[in-house]
């Protein structure tokens, strides 16, 4: 691969990759890396072996039809945040969703996908899937704030590699660990990607609160008076929120891509349709309850008759 | 595969189908889930039966994790991920605390990463002279700036308004004080004169000596205009002498007129015109326009 090194400053002492007479194109499967790196041998050999790990992650970002404006902007924000993504056209309805999407991903030559599905113009579901036969997750997205909101005032380089921070809850359970790994692979920009920029000037925050994954994106800003480049008064660093913001509620984890046996179901998840139905049902009984209350009062009055009031005729003419 | 229905009511059916399809060790994990369920059920009444049958295939998950994860010896530089310890539980509904928690998590992460980068000798933050495409356009940032400035201006204006209100109130109080002072002074002086007269009466008007107390109002000072007032400005002039009325054309006439009236009616200007005509002043035409009266009357009709 030609080394288009635009940013010579960021060259590290990493050994150059040499194609050691690998005759065929490596398969873009999950096993592909393992074959090249020969993991088992590598752990024993020195770290400067010629086979080097390359992050060839490509994410396909699509949405369903009839998506809301807010969610469409969220999708576009994601596209601008991930330089290693490919945006695709809207996908038709849900009949054979899994197969269609898998084909699309293969066609574009991507290894994962982010699919935004909007139902009833109100609810947004996000699928994170690993293409060939990897696991996939379905989330319900809440609390969406896009980058266009004027209260989110930060800005950062387009395509610079983010710093991913996870709260320690991610180690607590198996499904969180799996989610963490998927997030690292999808949201982390590959190291020497063509469209990536040097310097790391923004941070992603993934935090689990109340069994939801909260996402925030902050810009690192440092006052410019410091003359020294490196040690730039780190105490004075402030973080300004760039956006977007959203909150993910995991619904199910599947073993295959967009389908397959369920590995995990969120026991606390209630679908938004159900929530709306319950609220309506609560309101629906209002009239019936009123009628019942009236009859109850009548019965009560009949069973406990009042004593005649001695002053009732006082003002009568 | 196939369409995933979102209704929980269909979950039962799906579970049965999947139970056939895969090797799931549900029961021990389900018990764990149901325990946690019973606690949450008190808060969230909507959770009912379906949650108890939630699938949790630990081994499947771990297996998948191993499948997809990158090899162990991958440089940290590829992943750039950090784990931050979250000390205390954050209440979801408390917005400020939650955002603060996220902020501190990000700050911690940045600090750790900075140390790592420094040890590796790599540049970390963007130097101020590096210009490249940013994720938000310049036009958008202009809008943001405009909004921030507008907010700041609003706050400042509110401050100013409040201050001026306070100042006005204080000024009013001071003015009231001054008026009271003056009234008191006047009363005092009148009392003094009365006293002196009574004294004189009592001692029978005999002495020509100046046993007169020196009244403060006798030295003619009160007829002078107070030095506070500006020389060219009349006391009834609201604009403070800064409004120009038709250039210098009418000024001489008006000033002469004005001066005459002042000397005639004295202290207090217009409102002091309490004196009526006297014998001398009936035929005193100094204050009137010379011969302009007849012509004006004709024109006004």
CA-based shape of chain A: elongated
Q: Helix count of chain A?
A: 7
Q: What oligomeric state do these chains adopt?
A: heterodimer
Give the topology string of chain B: H per helix, E per strand.
HHHHHEHHHH
β-sheet strand percentage of chain B:
under 5%
- Total strands of chain B: the figure is 1
Task: Specify the biggest β-sheet of chain A.
Answer: 11 strands, mixed
Helical proportion of chain B? 40-55%
Biased composition (Acidic residues) (chain B): 16-42
InterPro entries (chain B): Ebp2
Pfam families (chain B): Ebp2
Family (chain B): Belongs to the EBP2 family.
Description:
The complex is a heterodimer of chains A (317) and B (301). Chain A has helices at 30-37, 39-42, 69-81, 97-108, 174-187, 272-284, 286-303, and strands spanning 59-63, 85-87, 112-119, 123-130, 136-145, 163-167, 202-209, 212-221, 238-241, 245-256, 259-265. Helix content of chain A is 26%, strand content 25%. In chain A, a hairpin with a 2-residue loop joins strand 10 (245-256) and strand 11. Chain A is of the alpha+beta class and 317 residues long. The longest helix of chain A has 18 residues, at 286-303. Chain A starts with 29 loop residues before the first helix and ends in a 14-residue tail after the last helix. In chain A, strands 1, 2, 3, 4, 5, 6, 7, 8, 9, 10 and 11 form an eleven-stranded mixed sheet that branches. Chain B has 301 residues and is mainly α. Chain B contains nine helices and one strand. Chain B is elongated and about 125 Å long. Chains A and B meet through helix 1, helix 4, strand 6, helix 5 and strand 7 of A and helix 1, helix 2, helix 4, helix 5 and strand 1 of B. Strand 6 of chain A pairs parallel with strand 1 of chain B, so a sheet runs across the interface.
